[in-house]
Amino acid sequence: MASIPQKVVHQYLRHNKKFPHVWCAGCSNGIVLGAVIRAIHELQIPKDDVMMVSGIGCTSRMPVYVDFNSLHTLHGRAIAFATGIKMVKPNMKVIVITGDGDATAIGGNHFIHAARRNIDLTVLVLNNHIYGMTGGQYSPTTPEGDFASTTPYGNIDEPFNICQLAMGAGATFVARGTAFHALETQTLIKEAILHKGCSVLEIVSSCPVIYGRLNKKGSPSRMLENMRDNSINIKAAEKLPPEQTEGKIIRGILKKDDKAVEYYDKYTQLVNRIKSKNK
Amino acid sequence: MAKEEVKAPQELEKDWVLMQGNEAVAKAAIDVGVKFFAGYPITPSTEIAEILAEELPLNDGVYIQMEDEISSMCAVIGASLAGAKSLTATSGPGFSLMQEAIGFAKISETPCVIVNVQRTGPSTGLPTKPGQGDIMQARWGSHGDGPAIVLYPDSVKEAYELTIRAFNLSEKYRTCVILLMDEVLGHMREAVLLPDISKFRVINRLKPTVPPEWYKHYEEDQKYLSPLASYGEGYRFHVTGLAHDAHGFPTNKPAEVKTMVTRLKKKITHNIRDIVQIESFMMEDAKVAIFAVGIVSRAAKSAILKARNEGLKVGLLRPLTIWPFPDEAVQKMLRNVETVIVPELNQGQLIHEIERLTKDKTDSDIVKIQKANGELITPNEIYKSIKEVI
Amino acid sequence: MSKNKKCDKHEVRLSGSGGQGLILAGIILARAAVHDKKRVTQSQSYGPESRGGASRADVIVSCEEIYYPEATRFDILLALTQEACDKFLFDLREEGILVVDNSIVKNISLLSSKIYEVPFTEIALEQLGSSLPTNILSLAFLVKISGIVSEQSLKKAIEESVRSAFIDVNLKAMKLGFDLAKKYK
After folding, report:
1. Do B302 and C42 lie within an 8 Å CB cutoff?
2. Residue B149 domain boundaries
3. Do C45 and B128 touch (CB under 8 A)?
4. Residues on A contacting B at a C-beta cutoff of 8 Å
5. Is residue B214 assigned to a domain?
6. Cα separation, A155 vs A145, whole angstroms
7. Any bridge partners for residue C97, and if so which?
8. What are phi and psi of A216, to 5 degrees?
9. Would residue B241 count as lying in a domain?
10. CA–CA separation, C95 vs B226, rounded Å?
11. In chain C, whose CA is at the least distance from the CA of B14?
C-alpha cells in the first residue's frame, strides 16, 4: 500500500467527463467505488481488460466515471448484458455494479440464473435498502417496519437476504462487506474478482438523504458507525454463541466453492467434446 | 408443441433442396457469420434456436438459452458490443418482452437482428397459427421515438436472403433490424435453390481506424455511418441507454440530445433507397393493385394469375422492407391504379399506412380484406375481391 | 393421375390427428418430389398438442413456381380419422383420389370410383407389429396409386428422413404399401 489512495483512484477516473457525479453528499457509493478501483489496481488488471456493467439506480451510475470498458444498461438487466459480453470475451474481467432493487427486484430472475449457471461475473450488490434515484420507495431489502415514500405506514414486506438468495441459487462465491469497512471490502472485492465463477458480494451501503432521513438513522457518519456497531466478521461470529450474533450483519466470505466448473469453461468443454467426436 | 422428429438428410441433391423457413434463417445466420445466439423457446420460432444450438458450437459461436426473452435480447446486445454478430428469434409474446431492450439497441446504435415469427395474437393467442399482428409493434413497439428497419420475406429462399440482408443493414447502420415472418413461412418447407454465400456481399461493421484517444463511439459522416469499436480492444468506450453525446456519455443538453435523435432518424431516412426493397409483380398495366406482405402476397399472386388468365389487369406491390415504409412506391401505385386491395392477417395495420398516403381524391379506392382468426387469406378470397372491383 | 400434362400442379392433403406422423409423411413426400426435380411446398396445420388434436400436412407438387402453399382443391386426400374425412372431403376435386383408413373411417359421404378404403392401421399392426408405420404405409399406397412421385425418390426420401434405427421398418411399410396398391388398382 505504498501509493496514496487518492492518487490511485485519480488514475482511473474519467476526469474530463461528467463530473461532478450524481451522488448526494454523504452517500457511501463513492467509498465503494474507491474500494473497487483500489482492488483492480492492486490486482494489476489492465484497464482494457475490465468491463464494468451496471443497471439503473444511483449505484448503477458508477461505470460512467471510471476509465474502463463501461456499459450502463436497463433497469435490472446488467447481468443479462454482462452474460452476453462474457460469453464473447471470456478473458475480460466482467464486473456488474448493481443495487438492491436493480439486482433482486426487477433483475431478480437474471440474478438467480447467473448464479445457477455459475458464469464468471463479479456481481457487486450495493444494498442501501431503498430506491434512492426515484425518491425513496421501498425495495426488496427494506427491513420490515421501516419507512419509505411508498410505505408511509411502515413496511410489511419480508426483506430478502441477498447472500442467502445467491447461495441458494448456486453462486460459488458469496460474501458481504460494508461501506464502513472499506479496506476489508476492498479485499473482498479482490477475492470476488479472482474467483472463477459467479461471485456475489453484497456491500451494505447507506442512503442518508432519503432512507436515513425517513427512518431517523442520523447523520451520514452515524449511519456508517452503525455498520461498524451492528456487524461482525464471520470469523469472530463463529466463535460466539448464536444469541450474541443475532440481528448482526455478518461480514466476510460466506461461501467459496473452487471446484465447480465455470459456465464458459463448461461451454468450451462441450465444444471440444463435440468437435473431437466429429473429427 | 407438436413437432415431428425429422432427421436432416444425409446427402441432398446438388442443387435443389427441401428447406424449412426457420431452417433457412438459421442457415443464413451461420453463413453470414453469426457468432452469438441467445433465446428462449417459443412456438413458432423454436426451430431457429434448435438448429443454432447444434450449429453454433461447431462454428466457433455461442448458443445460450436465457431465462426469458428480456435477458435474451440484453445478452444479444452485450455480445454485439463485445464484437460478435448476434441474433435472437422469438414470437409475439417474447417480442413484446424484448421491446425495452430493442429500444436500448436503437439508442446505443448496436447492431443485432431479431427474428419474430409471428403467430395469431393478442396475448398467447394461437401459438401455431399465422397472423400479421406485429407489423405496427415492429415499428412502434419500443417506447420513445426510435428508428426501425423491418424486413418481411415471403418464401424460404427469401427468408435466407433477408436474414443476410438484415445483418448487412444492422452492421452498416448500427441498429437492430427486425425480420418479421409468418408462422406458415417459418414452418413450411419448399424446394429451394440457395445461392452460395460467396455470391452475397456480406457487410461487417466498420472498425475504428483512429487511436483510442481520438475515438468517438458516435462519430458520424455525411451518410450517418460510424465506426464501431468492440469492448476489450483498447477503446474503453462508454455505452448507456441515457441520451448521450458523441462519446457516449450521458447528456441532457438540448443541442447534444438533438444531434443524437436526429442521427437516429437520419441514418434511416438519408439511406432509404439503400434500405427499402420492393417487388412489383405484373404492375406495368395494372388497373387494380394488391398491396400485401409475406405469405398473403403469395395468395395474391395465385389470385392475380387466375385473374390475368381472364384478362383482368391486376398486379401486386410487395414491400420486402416494410419499415421504413416505402412511401414513394406506394404513392406511385396510388396515382397509377384505380383500386388498391389490401389483404392482411390482422384487423387493419398496413391499411393505415396506405390511407396515410392517400391524400388526393384522384387517388385509388382502397379495399380491405382482413382476417385474424388463425386462417390464411386464400387466393379465392382475393380473386373474388378483384372481380368485385373490376 | 387423371391429368397427364407434365407441369400440372398436384395438391395433396394428408389429414388425421396429431401423433399419426402425417407431417413427417408430408416432408417425405415433398423431399421425394425434390428428388424428382419438381417444385414443391409442404405446409402444415396442427394444434399445440404433441399427440392428438387435428393435424394435417399439405404438399403441392408442380413444375412451376408455387405461390399459395396450402392445398385448396385436392387431387389426393388421405384421411386417417373420420373427422378429417368429413371435414375435407368436399374440397376434393371431382377426379380426385380419396384414400381412407377404413379401420377408423367408417362413413364416406361421397360416391366415386376413386375412393380407396384400406385398413392401414390393422394391416400395420398385423404385418409390421406396430401401428406407427401407418403413415408410411398409407403414403406409399397413395404414391403407387397416383404416381405423384417416383418410387425410387420416395424410398430415398424415407431413408433420408427417418432415424437410422427406423429405416428398415419404414422401408418394409413402404413395400407393403406398394404391394397393397397393386391389389386395389
Report:
1. no
2. 17-199
3. yes
4. 14, 17-18, 47-49, 51, 53, 63-64, 67-74, 77, 79-85, 87-89, 91-92, 109-110, 113, 267, 270-271, 274-275, 278
5. no
6. 5
7. C76
8. 50, 50
9. no
10. 63
11. C35
Facing residue for B84 by CB, picked from A83, A88, A275: A88
Cα A58 from Cα A29, distance rounded (Å): 8
Give the mean pLDDT of B271-288: 97
Report whether A237 contacts A245 (CB < 8 A).
yes
Cβ proximity of A169 and A115 under 8 Å: yes
Separation CA B342–CA B263 (nearest Å): 33
First to last CA, chain B: 44
CATH number at residue A90: 3.40.50.970
**Contact flag A71-B238 (C-beta cutoff 8 Å):** yes
**Domain chopping of chain C, boundaries:** 10-184
- The residue among B199, B231, B264 that closes a domain is B199
* Confidence bin at A15 (pLDDT 50/70/90): confident
Within an 8 Å CB–CB cutoff, is residue C62 touching chain B? no
Q: What pLDDT, on the 0 to 100 scale, is given for residue B7?
A: 44
Question: Is there a domain that residue B265 lies in?
Answer: no
Q: Are C75 and C93 in contact (CB under 8 A)?
A: yes
User: Which residue in A64, A82, A278 is closest to B78 by CB distance?
Assistant: A82
Q: How far is B227 from chain A (nearest CA, A)?
A: 17
- Residues 6 or more apart whose CB falls under 8 angstroms from that of B1 comprise B43, B44, B46, B127, B128, C48, C50
- The residue with cell 419404414 is C170
pLDDT digits over B26-75, tens only? 999 999 999 999 999 999 999 999 999 999 999 999 999 999 999 999 99
φ and ψ at A105, to 5 degrees?
-100, -85
Chain B residues lying within 8 Å of C30, measured CB to CB: 18, 189-191
- Is residue B163 located within the same domain as residue B38? yes
Q: CB-CB: which of B57, B231, B241 is closest to A73?
A: B241
Q: Grid cell 388425421 — which residue?
A: C16
How many helices (H) and strands (E) in chain C? 6, 6
pLDDT digits (tens, 9 = 90+) for A164-203: 999 999 999 999 999 999 999 999 999 999 999 999 999 9
CB-CB neighbours of B1 under 10 Å: 14
Contacts of C18 in chain B (CB under 8 A): 2
Give me the residues paired with residue A95 across strands. A52, A122
Indicate the residue among B199, B225, B255 that finishes a domain.
B199
CATH of domain C10-184: 3.40.920.10
pLDDT at A16: 74
Q: B186 and B48: one domain? A: yes
d(CA B180, nearest CA chain A) in Å = 24
For B225-251, give the DSSP string.
------TTSS---EEESS-B-TTS-B-
Residue A14 maps to a domain: no
The answer to whether C39 faces chain B, any CB pair under 8 Å, is: yes
From start to end of C47-111, where are the E strands?
54-62, 74-79, 92-101
> Which chain B residues touch A81 with a CB distance below 8 Å?
74-75, 77-78
Chain B residue at shortest CA distance from C26: B189
Question: Chain A contact for B210, CB < 8 A?
Answer: no
Give the pLDDT of residue A2: 54
Per residue in B198-233, pLDDT (tens digit) is 999 999 999 999 999 999 999 877 778 889 999 999
- Say whether B299 and C68 touch across the interface (CB within 8 A): yes
Whether residue C3 has pLDDT greater than 50 = no
Residues of A in contact with B230 (CB under 8 A): 89
Nearest CA in chain B to C159: B9
Instruction: Read off the pLDDT of each residue in B174-194 and give the average, rounded to a whole number.
Output: 97
Q: How many CB atoms lie within 10 A of CB C95?
A: 12
Question: What is the ipTM metric for this complex?
Answer: 0.97
Please tell me whether residue C89 adopts helix, strand or coil conformation: helix
